[in-house]
Amino acid sequence: MSKSFSNIQRRKSLQIKVGNVAVGGDAPVSVQSMTNTLTTDVAATVAQINSIAEAGADIVRVSVPSMDAAEAFREIRKQVAIPVVADIHFDYRIALKVAEYGADCLRINPGNIGNADRVRQVVDCARDYHIPIRIGVNGGSLERDLLEKYGEPTPEALVESAMRHVDYLDRFDFPYFKVSVKASDLFMCVNAYRLLAKKIDQPLHLGITEAGGLRMGSVKSSIGLGLLLSEGIGDTLRVSLAADPVEEVKVGFDILKSLGLRSRGINFIACPTCSRREYDVIGTVDALEKRLSDITMPLDVAIIGCVVNGPGECIKADIGVAGAKKHCGYYENGERVDRIPHEVLIDELEKKIRARVAYLNEHPEAARTMFV
Ligand code: SF4
Predict the structure, then answer these.
(1) Per-residue pLDDT tens for 202-219?
(2) Which residue is closest in CA terms to ligand 1's atom 6?
(3) Is the domain of 199 the same as that of 323?
């Protein structure tokens, strides 16, 4: 792997556990997604959770809007291995139920569930089952008095709302929580997290809410989360996309990979191509991305169109090809060791990459790319 110039100093936060996944402290930034099936459809929800887990997510969230959904949650929880956060709004009785049914975290805002006795019951329940709480403030559902005070959603309003919920948990001496302050406006969201990071020691769950479809949502999230993560802020994240939740996981990892904070699967380094390209670079990358999506080992693979930038990129990667007439120069571990004819490039590269992964599984000390 090429040398990284990332020098991100992560904010020191307290660590909590969501199931077996540590969030905060020195734990890697975890990637989450959320199901969009009907929770009462157990089979569909379990299938989607499994797809999300296979894509590499560390944690998944499921909304539990009714007691029927809570009963379905009980079945779902039994059938999946990944930690599951139960997302509850207002009804504290649902929180008590899903905690009993094995939720690994409760997403509920203590200030929204009524009197102090209800809050106490939820907090006691979380304490008894050793599960954390996620406070989730959203710019679209700020309290009316805060909207009147600030005139509109602002970073300060988001943080004041979050601190109200934090105060509830403080009152009950419950420090095992994480907080999100999401907004669809990128700068409002980023500034709210910056303010909140100075106020509490708990882990922060990052997200730009209602970011948009696959392309725009990915761009917005990459900028917003990228700004925060590059400042060391953020312990877990969800990229919110109006798209398949599996895409949220992929984009989440791509953001972390780009910042050198985590790595998973193949990191393709590919040139955009120009008239100097000697073979179909774009088709090769497309085909290999699909064929090798099952590989979780981090590996840098350079697919470069010609010798202008080919050798330079290939010697930094674990595996690389640089286009030449009729064949590509093939590089492994920084050295040119072979040539591959264009017409068999995709099949041969797949074989060689799989062979390298198998070798590194047996000889992890030979890895150039480090897994974080
Ligand atoms: Fe063009 Fe070669 Fe650069 Fe690729 S590496 S963009 S083919 S000059």
Answers:
(1) 999 999 988 789 999 999
(2) 273
(3) no
